[in-house]
Structures
1.
Amino acid sequence: MPPLVQVIVGTTRPGRFSEKPIAWLVDRLCGRDDLELEILDLRDHPLPMYEGTVPPARSPRDYPNDAVARFGQAIDRADGFIIVTAEYNHGYPASLKNAMDYLFAEFNRKPVAFVGYGNVGGARAIEQLRQVVVELEMAPLRHAVNILPELMISARSAEPFSPELFASLDQRLETMVSDLLWWTAALGAARASAG
Ligand SMILES: Cc1cc2nc3c(=O)[nH]c(=O)nc-3n(C[C@H](O)[C@H](O)[C@H](O)COP(=O)(O)O)c2cc1C
């Protein structure tokens, strides 16, 4: 069985740009035989602003309600992640932070790579996310894909959007994914041997 790579869609607002990188990722990564791709859209997991009583790090998989349980069980299945993030006010979107704060064990010892977009390709949001995911005991990777404004403008004006508009990013994606798969195999084996 190839590793399950989950793509977390970090923004939820109407008209979100994230749909375009997601369409490109699906086009490029679906059908590969060295990974199974799953899109985890935070729109499908509406969670209230964090309201847990005990931090998830101290109450692993103890879900306060069905919505968090469904989200936790989905994240639990993954072997590695690609987080697709916007940059809101030089940070990552609150939707992403709120969702991640609900879990802990489900993310532990799994690798995560990033696709960002914005004025500096989401670089500031990605740097912040790298700090956050370390606290979830994840392994953030160096290689990332940064979608800059010129590409965002052409992608926004294209109707319909074609994944070919992001073809200049294909090599970066390939480098990032091959690194992600290396870490997915290494950490998957280590998690399995740790029991
Ligand atoms: C609240 C808000 C703050 C923003 N701040 C930034 C920013 O700091 N840096 C940036 O590059 N883009 C910023 N933008 C523009 C976003 O890059 C752009 O709107 C993008 O489409 C947002 O992602 P989304 O459409 O998936 O929600 C901001 C957008 C919003 C809505």
Note: The longest helix spans residues 170-194.
2.
Amino acid sequence: MLTAMGYNPLLLKRIMKKITDKNNAAELLQTLSGEFAVIKNPEYIHPAFELAPLAPKLTSPLESLTAAVMDMDGTTTTTEELCIHSLEFMIRKMSGKFTADEWIGLDHTLDYPNIIGNSTTKHVEYLISKYHGLFDQTEIKRAYLFAAVWTIIVGLDQKRKEEVIINLTNLNLAGLMKSPFFLELAASPAAVNDRENEIGEKLVKQYGSIFPELTRTDLVKLGIDIYYQRYHAILQRIKRGESRQISAELFNDPEKRLIQPMPGILFFLSLIKGWLGNEAVDLIPSLLKDYELKSGTPFTAQNIGTLQQRISRLSDHFVKDPAKVSIVTSSIFYEADIVMGEVFSVLSAQLRTLPLSEERKNAIAQKLEHYRNTYDAFITASDSTEIRLKPHRDLYSIALHQLNVPVKEFGNVIGFEDSESGTIAIRAAGIGRCIAVPFAQTKGHNFEAATMVSYGGVPEVVLTHNVFFTP
Ligand SMILES: [Mg+2]
């Protein structure tokens, strides 16, 4: 007898011991799935790779939707720009090459598939092994020492601070935290941002010679601290309401919103939560606009009457039987909290422009007051550990567990991801309905793990696939 995932209890009883040989292991593995993902681990992990059994792809129509599990960056929001900026900044800091003349910057086609959607360690590891030829030892130390001091004094994420202190200690630099200069900086944290050059210069003069010879693994750890410092410094400014100023500084465009929801997110969340009732059909024009925004092509509607009927039926269904929903992100909680806070304030503003009754708008507005009113689970990298993030299944498995979805209902779950590693993580967690929703930065990814690739994103899933329900 095979269970849904194909595992065979009789076979298991016959050959499963706590320790088994490779032949029996191969036989056992075969019972788990017909398809496996090969997941490469960071250099300092045993084993070098792991095989993850994938859930079979599912495309059959649904009768009910138990849950939707959704990635954050690139799927629910557009924050990838900030992450990519911070990664490029890290390489510039470690090399001292700050202008495009000195170094052209990251390669859209070759680099982006390797620096989006995975764990920060993997992103940094990739970039360091590709660009270490540009590095300068003094620049690395200067950038790292500033990042470490900033994180301990100005940073707000406790886990980050602890990691930075561990790194300092491993580099024999823990004494720095007792130095008069450090204590002076700690006494006026607000000034640290403006004194970056002076602080880096002073620290490298005083501590540069104490550093041991830096190995590749050291460079990755230092790079991670430099990356996070930049990213978190920007997040702190966004939280202070300086988004426009940052956009002008970094992208020469004050109107560019650094954090905003992906097209169709407000409609999709409101629909599957059952908030739209009989007014869902009034939002079809805005959903069509969102489809066009996401896919770049206008939606060629079949009969508009048929479309209205389908949306109306879907909305009725979800009013009676709302789905659960979770964010599943490889970002740490500190980041996800700020990002989703910003996303929900934009969603609240979007809501006010929609052609819905005041009564309904007010009811939905209450739900949007805090993102936790909408999400039944909110899973971040802080729920796991850096070495078990996507493409490993852990974050999605934690989400399914927190959403209280039993394994027999995994077939009624939809997962959304914009990256290769995210789609693998969804299927490795046992979810066979895995929708890739690529956006500009992840178009070059390999999506063979996905059940369906939807360039029209969430609006396409509603408009052409009916959220997988029978029309
Ligand atoms: Mg993503």
Note: The beta strands are 36-40, 49-53, 67-70, 324-328, 377-379, 413-417, 434-436, 452-453.
3.
Amino acid sequence: MVQFDKDGRLIIPITKRGKDKDKDKNAKYVIKKAYCPNGCNIIDVNHPINGFPGLRIKYKRPGVEGELVLSAIEGDFDKIILSGSLEEGVKDELYCPHCGEMFKKLVSCNCKEDADMVIIGLTPHLDFNNAITFCNVTGCHNGSYVKSGDILRHIRLKEGF
Ligand SMILES: [Zn+2]
Ligand SMILES: [Zn+2]
């Protein structure tokens, strides 16, 4: 069964893992809409990953630049590298592939000294309460598809603010 939540995100109930009594805990979000800070739509229908159009992003680090497509499925770190190459444990700056605007950063990630949690809005006008966030270091799986406001609270609690 396929359903959309109130933000227009597609919910796929995951039934593989045993106890399915609590539907919410077994559902994964799929991003259907994602935008750069200037409002460009970055969903790439030409590059589906695991059955869903991915999020197209331009990346740069000293000496390397390219484009990649991220999976739109929560917790799925599959990606398609369209050009350039990624290096495990190395940070990239992330930009809109259409207008070149850099994606905003929310907070630091604790995996590396200079790592950032990049934020991508699910609405054309960036709303921190309706966004996804993930670390810009290749191989770091910190991030979440839940609302960023929740993430901020979570991180503050963890760091004892
Ligand atoms: Zn843009
Ligand atoms: Zn990280």
Note: Residues 18-22 have pLDDT under 50 and may be disordered.
